[in-house]
Amino acid sequence: MNKQAAISDLVTTVPKSTDRRIALHVSRDGERALRSGHPWLFENSIERQSHAGKPGDLAVAFDQKRRFLAIGLYDPTSPLRMRVLQHGDPASIDHAWWFAKLSAAAQRRVPLLDGRTTGYRLVHGENDDLPGLVIDRYDQTLVMKLYTVAWLPHLAELLPALQRVQPAARLVLRLSRTLQKAPEHLYGLADGMVVAGPPLAGALIFLENGLRFEADPLHGQKTGFFLDQRENRAHVEGLAAGKRVLNVFAYNGGFSLYAARGGARQVTSLDSSRPALAAAERNFALNQHLPMVAATEQQLLAGDAFPLLAQLAAEGQRFDLVIIDPPAFAKQQSEIERALGAYARLTQLGLGVLAPNGTLVLASCSSRVSTEAFVANAMGTAARKGRPLRIFAQTTHALDHPIGFPEGAYLKCLFATA
């Protein structure tokens, strides 16, 4: 946001939090979690509190001996009652505090600012000490996504600090599904609203490692693009020369486009969403000035990945490089076993269309599934199929998606030959 990008009146009229802080006396389990630096305090870890609070009020957690543990945002609408802003030492949560936190987050991303990348995550929630808040940058547009109503009373103070740290032409507000279902706490704010700067009619263009992509901050998944796979996409580029490539769960064709620039002779993008595949086609069109992209034969395949992979295998289709990057299969503990079953099935199906000595890329964004379980699942499935994997690379989070606590580690990706 530049200095002329006035913040919407709707933001400035949201009632601010009260000055009276809520004292929370926590259980021994809650105390251990907070002392370890965990960013969440759940309702069942609170033994008593000084008074009832409203969303966004500041809460202070104390141990059994009434010693300060942490300060954070209180949310009485959620079992996750407090999202911790600061551990260990008391603090005044004001403009200077917001500015310092946002500045620290921006400083971590400086290595990305080489002129070839204008799309990246500026704030990664809990992992940047701003729990429940994500901010992504797409060239001159910032997209802020909120996951708790507790942030709303603080936007009028947070946004001017953001203007100072990361000037941009526009700020788009995105709200989680939970927030969208609570209009009584939104004070007229809505998902996809431009809260600073000029209106946005549709998709915008940004750069990732020199490739041009479109993003739809108003209606796209997450904030409009999956920025967390940037480094894995670049790794695929280095593996693609002369190969026939299959990109499963292709979404808007990120892996496909990198493979094309890497010299793939043919790329097939498979996804159940026809609008996503249309976006993939547009992304290829945006990069036709690159000789390698222009020379790559592109195919789009719409449908459910599981039966389509089986169909491709039955038809005798074989690919030198197969990329499988599915959505999160396990969002809660009870779904882990089912998720591992789905990953095993995809591994088996992927090997069914992989040429001998081909390269298989498997990714998971399910935080509930550990890296160890994910890798063991893939290795065991491949061994049973008679195509043992030879893993030559494993990756985790990029620097703009730091890991600050165990649940924050969700992304894992392995590269193997079989």
Would you kindly provide a written description of the structure presented here, covering whatever features stand out?
By secondary structure, the chain is an alpha/beta fold. The protein has 3 domains: 22-87, PUA domain (Archaeosine Trna-guanine Transglycosylase, Chain: A, domain 4); 94-202, RNA methyltransferase domain (HRMD) like (Transcription Regulator spoIIAA); 226-417, Rossmann fold (3-Layer(aba) Sandwich), CATH 3.40.50. The protein has 12 helices and 20 strands. It has helices at 9-12, 28-35, 95-108, 155-165, 177-180, 230-237, 254-261, 274-286, 291-295, 305-314, 336-352, 371-384; strands spanning 22-26, 40-42, 46-49, 58-62, 68-74, 80-87, 119-124, 133-138, 141-146, 170-175, 193-196, 204-208, 211-215, 244-248, 266-271, 297-302, 319-324, 354-364, 390-395, 412-417. The strands form 4 sheets. A 7-stranded mixed beta sheet has the order 16-15-14-17-18-20-19, with helices on both faces. Helix 6 (230-237) packs parallel to helix 7 (254-261) and helix 11 (336-352) crosses helix 12 (371-384). The longest helix is centred in the C-terminal third of the chain and has 17 residues, at 336-352.
Task: Provide the low-confidence segments as ranges.
Answer: none
What can be said about the biggest beta sheet?
A: 7 strands, mixed
Order of the strands making up the biggest sheet: 16-15-14-17-18-20-19
Roughly how many Å is the radius of gyration? 23 Å
Helix content: 25-40%
Count of alpha/pi helices: 12
**CATH class label of the largest domain:** Alpha Beta
* CATH topology-level fold name of the largest domain: Rossmann fold
What is the H level of CATH, i.e. the homologous superfamily of the largest domain?
A: Vaccinia Virus protein VP39
Number of strands: 20
Mean pLDDT reading:
95
